[in-house]
């Protein structure tokens, strides 16, 4: 295994507020990683720093051995917490746009996943429900053959019955050497697909573990451990 993402001494302050404090992490290739923590713990800040939407106050990030920049954007596919797509566009037009923009975007994958989730490529985003829009955005992000995927709260608006199916459909399409980092509050829904978890609390990493270790050594589900660690 080789490292796809690492950060050392990573700190982000907004004025007097510290959103991330001296975070050291190393994430290997070929894993699905849950970035978990209560509201305001720093999950989105970490993901935004990795995608250059923010710059660190101090510390360093390396993606595939390189600092975030043009080269890392080629290998990273990012689903932000808020939509950035023009919602008057039809899904088909967005797929054309992504095909032009990203060398590693595979339109056939996008059309296949849309079909499996019963979404018409002819529909405009603005006519879709919140959950369907989320599905479309996730499909677009996962249709790139990236080395690292960042999914910031990917299925919050999707109904519980559809979540498993979406996670399976989307993950069945991704290359097993790639790494997926998912931030989510829906731990019981996503934990079945996770290999590794990072717990953040109040801007710091409080636990990193393989999911197998949590289940075997601690005899707990990730959801139960999360509830214990973050009990109010
Ligand atoms: N642009 C900003 N200006 C000021 N403070 C910010 C900004 N962005 C984030 N913060 C603060 O940094 C901290 C971490 O925020 P972040 O959005 O990373 O948390 P999160 O773990 O993603 O939370 P949630 O689960 O609610 O999405 C919070 O206290 C938040 O208020």
Automatic annotation (TrEMBL):
Residues 5-227 form the ABC transporter domain. SUPFAM superfamilies: P-loop containing nucleoside triphosphate hydrolases (SSF52540). Keywords: ATP-binding, Nucleotide-binding, Transport. GO terms for molecular function: ATP binding; ATP hydrolysis activity. InterPro entries: AAA+_ATPase (IPR003593), ABC_transporter-like_ATP-bd (IPR003439), ABC_Transporter_VariousFunc (IPR051782), P-loop_NTPase (IPR027417). The keyword Ribosomal protein does not apply. This is Putative ABC transporter ATP-binding protein YbhF. The lineage of its organism: Bacteria, Bacillati, Bacillota, Clostridia, Eubacteriales. The gene is ybhF_1.
């Amino acid at each position: 295994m080789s490292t796809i993402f690492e950060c050392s001494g990573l700190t982000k302050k907004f004025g007097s507020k510290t959103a991330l404090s001296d975070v050291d992490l190393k994430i290997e290739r070929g894993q699905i990683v849950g970035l978990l923590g209560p509201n305001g713990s720093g999950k989105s800040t970490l993901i935004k720093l990795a995608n250059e939407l923010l710059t660190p106050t101090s510390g360093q990030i390396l993606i595939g051995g390189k600092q975030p920049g043009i080269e890392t954007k080629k290998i990273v596919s990012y689903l932000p917490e808020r939509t950035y797509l023009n919602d008057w566009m039809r899904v088909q037009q967005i797929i054309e746009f992504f095909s032009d923009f990203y060398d590693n975007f595979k339109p056939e994958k996008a059309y296949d996943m849309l079909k499996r989730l019963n979404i018409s490529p002819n529909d405009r985003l603005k006519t879709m429900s919140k959950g369907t829009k989320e599905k479309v955005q996730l499909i677009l992000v996962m249709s790139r053959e990236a080395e690292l995927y960042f999914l910031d709260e990917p299925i919050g608006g999707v109904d519980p019955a559809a979540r498993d199916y979406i996670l399976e459909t989307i993950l069945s399409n991704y290359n097993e050497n790639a790494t997926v980092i998912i931030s989510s509050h829906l731990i019981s829904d996503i934990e079945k697909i996770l290999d590794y978890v990072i717990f953040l609390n109040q801007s710091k990493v409080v636990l990193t573990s393989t999911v197998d270790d949590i289940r075997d050594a601690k005899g707990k589900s990730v959801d139960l451990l999360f509830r214990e660690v973050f009990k109010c």
